[in-house]
Amino acid sequence: MSKTLISTRSLRKSYGKRNSKFEALRGVTLNIHEGESVAIIGKSGSGKSTLMHLLALLDKPTRGEITLNGHPTAKLRARKLNTIRNKKFGFVFQSFFMNANDTVLNNVILPLKIAGVGHKERRRRAISALKTVDLDDKRNNKASDLSGGQKQRVCIARAIVNDPKVIFADEPTGNLDSTTGDKIINLLFKLNHEKGITLIIVTHDQDLANKCQRQISIKDGRIVSDSSADVEQDDDGDEEIREIVAESEEDDDDDATPDKFEGDNNIDGMLDQKHPVHHINIEDEEDL
Ligand SMILES: Nc1ncnc2c1ncn2[C@@H]1O[C@H](COP(=O)(O)OP(=O)(O)OP(=O)(O)O)[C@@H](O)[C@H]1O
Ligand SMILES: [Mg+2]
Predict the structure, then answer these.
(1) pLDDT tens string 146-161
(2) Among the atoms of ligand 1, which is closest to the Cα of residue 51?
(3) Which residues pair with 92 in a beta bridge?
(4) For the chain, what are the domain ranges?
(5) Contact at 8 Å (CB) between 15 and 217?
(6) 61 lines ligand 1 (CB under 6 A)
(7) For residues 164 and 138, is the Cβ–Cβ distance under 8 A?
(8) What is the rounded distance in angstroms from the CA atom of residue 26 to the CA atom of residue 119?
(9) Ligand nearest to the CA of 41
């Protein structure tokens, strides 16, 4: 079995206060291993997206711990979290919208720009990502001109352009017809098989869940079944993640991470408004 990438211990997440308090997660402990494909399944409102947002470090738990390559993440500063998300994670969400008035190419380039990749290199990598999703011919089209399935493929191109370790996909086929949905799914699994990218997919679609190596079923904020017998690992983990985290641990300049990441300066609609949005400060990222 491969190394542990993300671990959670007794994760709890509540929304609201006092009378309106709602416990969306009620103690979730799991380990995600490198290269796994994991489906998170369960009824509407069971806590799937909440769990995915915590795993992707887009939001913070009310209680409990999330470790990445064995390092606790609770005290990581916003800037480090942004770096990890930008360089190591890719996101494909159902209502993931793009900068509609910009070109397809520029939408895919954006994470590279944030990561401070040079002009020529980011163009080369974005075109290569667009070729992977078979949309290179649309690179100069406005994103708003594309069909739903094409938009979703652009989102996948944008999710893979930084060569992430993990792709988080929340209902990636929810808005697509079955043929287009199958294409998107095949693409995600191809990335998993060929590049070893870890896939974490929230879905209501049992056929899609069956394609994953592992299925985690959530009910009322708790794991009720997990098809994988979980084994604790010795792990060295991804070297660059270790460096980012270690650098942050040494850094005692404490501009504490906000409880949620909000603001206008997000990756242009990287997240649906419903979801927490995080700051991406291009200047900050460029000197990393
Ligand atoms: N920001 C929020 N404020 C208050 N309650 C919330 C918030 N976000 C989620 N919840 C509640 O937490 C519970 C879990 O929500 P979550 O979005 O994780 O469900 P889900 O399993 O992804 O459902 P679906 O399949 O419908 O997307 C729901 O009851 C939801 O109403
Ligand atoms: Mg959801």
Answers:
(1) 988 888 889 989 998 9
(2) 18
(3) 169
(4) 4-94+165-276
(5) no
(6) no
(7) no
(8) 46
(9) 1
**Which tokens is 23 given?**
């416990």
Closest CA to 276 of 17, 91, 5: 91
Alpha-carbon distance of 36 to 173, in angstroms, equals: 20
Q: Going by CA atoms, what residue is nearest to atom 6 of ligand 1?
A: 15
Three-state secondary-structure class, residue 67: strand
Question: Residues 27-72: pLDDT tens digits?
Answer: 999 999 999 999 999 999 999 999 999 999 999 999 999 999 999 9
Could you give the angle at the alpha carbon of 61 between the alpha carbons of 55 and 67, nearest 5°? 50
Mean pLDDT within 93-100: 75
> pTM for the complete prediction?
0.80
Task: Specify the residue for token string 């904020």.
Answer: 221
CATH 1.25.40.10 fits 4-94+165-276, yes or no: no
Ligand 1 in reach of 47 Cβ (< 6 A): yes
